[in-house]
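Need a sequence for this fold. Nothing fancy.
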């Protein structure tokens, strides 16, 4: 699934403009479709579900490679947004995945809260970096009983 790691201020402005149109009931049917499809400036139910699925896949892959990860269950339905009540669990799951193995030096820290574009980008950057590391681990398995030809065990 695609990661969104380049949200910016213009995405938030577009989100706020559309939200205002929805509140004042001046949005066109096309704008309603854009809203329900998910916008880059928002972290809504479709984003949360996408990220949850990616976290579950990463946790499964890490566990399968011997890096134990435990995730607290969360389920999101259409209309859900991250609230203060479940942001702690959500970021805790990201923290558990990040802590499972050594990440790249440039991998950001888990944000203390999800308040702005940079923190939302960091959240997905962490998952992307862990996925890169996990893919490298899976590809680095040896394919025979020796690492080098003629090696004695």
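Here you go.
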């Amino acid at each position: 699934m695609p990661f969104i790691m380049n949200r910016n201020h213009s995405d938030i402005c577009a989100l706020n403009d559309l939200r205002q149109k929805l509140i004042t009931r001046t949005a066109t049917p096309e704008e309603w479709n854009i809203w329900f499809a998910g916008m880059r400036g928002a972290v809504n139910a479709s984003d949360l579900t996408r990220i949850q699925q990616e976290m579950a896949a990463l946790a499964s892959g890490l566990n399968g490679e011997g890096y134990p990860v435990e995730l607290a269950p969360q389920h999101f339905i259409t209309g859900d947004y991250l609230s203060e009540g479940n942001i702690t669990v959500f970021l805790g799951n990201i923290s558990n995945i990040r802590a499972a193995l050594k990440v790249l030096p440039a991998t950001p820290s888990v944000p203390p809260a999800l308040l702005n574009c940079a923190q939302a980008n960091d959240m997905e950057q962490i998952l992307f970096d862990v996925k890169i590391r996990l893919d490298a681990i899976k590809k680095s398995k040896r394919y025979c009983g020796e690492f080098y030809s003629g090696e004695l065990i």
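For context: The mean pLDDT is 81.
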